[in-house]
Amino acid sequence: MKATLEIINRMQAEGVIGQYAIGGAVGATFYLEPAATLDIDIFVGLPKASGSSLLTLAPVYEYLASRGYNAEKENIVIEGWPVQFPPTRDALDEEALQQAVETALEGIPTRVPSPEHVVAIALRTGRAKDFARVLQFIESGVLEPAKLDAILGRHGLVERWEQFGIRFLRDAEPSERDKP
Amino acid sequence: MTDWMRRVLESKRAVRERLRTLSFSEKVELLEKLRERSLAIARSPLRQSASRKS
Prior knowledge:
The complex is a heterodimer. Chain A is α+β, with helices and mostly antiparallel strands. Chain A has eight helices and seven strands. By secondary structure, chain B is mainly α. Chain B has three helices and no strands. The N and C termini of chain B lie far apart (about 35 Å). The interface of A and B includes residues 30, 105 and 178 of A.
């Protein structure tokens, strides 16, 4: 993965992509225990195509193809790792990207979203595996409640958070039957 | 919940906590091993014949 990130950093240095942050299971691994995954999600800010307001991944694909990295389904395999480049799609993604945490992987600088942003994005996405990840974050104790509240409020996710609580946290306390 | 089950869960929690506190580089090393295992399982003839049957 080190070699993969070196290529992505080079793309950023050469202006092919803007700021980026590692999302998905790899990004979550920064805060949690490692979880098996087959690919890397790289959230990117993309420069707009000239004369257009549309964001396009074409320069990313062209840059990588010219260096021998080819697309396989929705991924591009870079140094052995399939990579997806989901562009930012709303204000929450933009904020997560801007406020991502600087870190390093074996000396290679990189960025991951804050844990509160990972949780907010997972709530918004709302698949079973996203809910499982939210529970892992809660259990890990890495979340700052005030920061999470503010993010959920800014991005209209308070109701989803409440529904999540009703669905998954209401019975978190051990019942009388379960107590020793 | 039985006492035995409680001990199992506590042990799992302790292992997860130990893994969580590793450095990012150490965790990614483990993640790469997990990925290799997953790919090896997916390539296994047993797995492939099972998926053909289903």
